[in-house]
């Protein structure tokens, strides 16, 4: 059985059924592409052979040369047709692959949607809202506890700091006054200053005597 016959004849000896699967259709298209590709190679070789024959005979046997060129033209025409057919099959195969991909994507999306629906059926929206409210309240309580723990435990924070500073200044001033009272200044001496020594008085008297003697001698 040829490949073209297999292409148009379904599995099971031509018995009809619901329709081929995308995988089967893609496999058939790839088989056809391979077959046509081999046909292209065959025609290209035949074209080369006929061209060589035409060159060989040339003007020696013009009739044989013309027949070779005619066969070359027919092979070239078949080659062009196969190129067009391959382009059509390639386009159809790509479209089928895309359709198969889209089908698989939609199938998986539908499967996921059913799974989500099954999960959501076991959920009660009212219970979810209540649970979220409980979570929010507990988070607020936890935050309040954290704030309370982080505050320094200051006993006596009710006192005014300005009053404490003023009281401290008063204590410092009292301490300064007490220190000044304990400091004693030296007293003024009650005795008179000592008089000139006797030797000094005698020296002054001698000087006076010398002055009188000098005046008398002159």
Automatic annotation (TrEMBL):
Coiled coil: none annotated. Its main location: cytoplasm. Residues 188-198 have a biased composition (Polar residues). Keywords: Coiled coil, Cytoplasm, Endosome, Membrane, Protein transport, Transport. InterPro entries: Snf7_fam (IPR005024). Pfam families: Snf7. The keyword Cytoplasm applies. One of its GO terms (biological process) is protein transport. Probable core component of the endosomal sorting required for transport complex III (ESCRT-III). ESCRT-III components are thought to multimerize to form a flat lattice on the perimeter membrane of the endosome. This is Charged multivesicular body protein 4c.
């Amino acid at each position: 059985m040829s490949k073209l016959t297999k292409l148009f004849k379904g599995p099971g000896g031509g018995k009809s059924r619901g329709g081929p699967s995308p995988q089967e259709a893609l496999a058939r298209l790839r088989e056809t592409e391979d077959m046509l590709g081999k046909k292209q190679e065959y025609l290209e070789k035949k074209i080369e052979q006929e061209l060589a024959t035409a060159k060989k005979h040339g003007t020696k046997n013009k009739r044989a040369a013309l027949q070779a060129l005619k066969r070359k033209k027919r092979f070239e025409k078949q080659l062009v047709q196969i190129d067009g057919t391959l382009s059509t099959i390639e386009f159809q195969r790509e479209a089928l692959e895309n359709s198969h991909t889209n089908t698989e994507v939609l199938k998986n999306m539908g499967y996921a949607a059913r799974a989500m629906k099954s999960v959501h059926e076991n959920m009660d929206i009212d219970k979810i809202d209540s649970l979220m409210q409980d979570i929010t309240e507990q988070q607020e309580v936890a935050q309040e506890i954290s704030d309370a723990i982080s505050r320094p435990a200051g006993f006596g924070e009710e006192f005014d700091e300005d009053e404490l500073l003023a009281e401290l200044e008063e204590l410092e001033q009292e301490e300064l006054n007490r220190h000044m009272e304990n400091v004693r200044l030296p007293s003024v001496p009650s005795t008179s200053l000592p008089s000139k020594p006797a030797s000094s008085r005698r020296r002054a008297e001698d000087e006076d005597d010398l002055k009188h003697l000098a005046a008398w001698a002159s």
